[in-house]
Amino acid sequence: MRPVVACRVVEAEHPEVREFLAAQWPLADRRLFGRELDWTSRPVVVEARAGPALVGVALGEAVAGMARLHDLLVVEPRQGQGVGGRLVELFCRRAAELGAARCFLRCPDTERHRRFYERSGFALVAKLPRYYHGHDFLAYLREPLVQELGPAGPK
């Protein structure tokens, strides 16, 4: 007779959880994809500085042929000067160097965010109602990751 399975919430991840995942994911990948896959997350970090002062960052990761842009932030006095667009381009180029072919991101559902990401070559893929703190967010995708730059920006 097999023991009864008991599920419970625990306070934090412990080493046994990592060991379990390391042993079980390759088996699940082989069943689903026919082979083991590399799921190594590689950080992508881009910063903007004015002299020694940090004025903007783009942070995310490249994993399994895709990139995720988690954070893009430019200090208010530098917004509207092209810093954010340059950070996004450098983020995408670095992610491509790490093997990513596309980039996903989530952002607040505002007209300003829509214009910025669409101008940067991203396409809206989903609306996420009440995603964080009851506010609507948007999910965007850019593919291909590295795009030719023309006089008006990405093509």
The helix/strand order is HEEEHEHEEEE
End-to-end distance: 63 Å
Instruction: Profile the largest sheet.
Output: 6 strands, mixed
Shape designation: globular
Widest β-sheet, arrangement of strands: 1-2-3-4-6-5
| Share of residues in helices | 25-40%
User: Which structural category do the helix and sheet elements fall into?
Assistant: alpha+beta
List unreliable stretches of 5+ residues: none
- Determine the number of helices (DSSP H or I, runs of at least 4 residues): 3
- The overall strand count is 8
**Strand content range:** 35-45%
Write down the Rg. 19 Å
Describe the protein's architecture and organization.
With about 160 residues, the chain is of the alpha+beta class. The chain has three helices and eight strands; from the N terminus they run αβββαβαββββ. It has a six-stranded mixed beta sheet with strand order 1-2-3-4-6-5, covered by helices on one side. It has a two-stranded antiparallel sheet with strand order 7-8. A hairpin with a 2-residue loop joins strand 2 (about 55-65) and strand 3 (about 65-75). The longest helix has 19 residues, at about 15-35. It is globular and about 70 Å long.
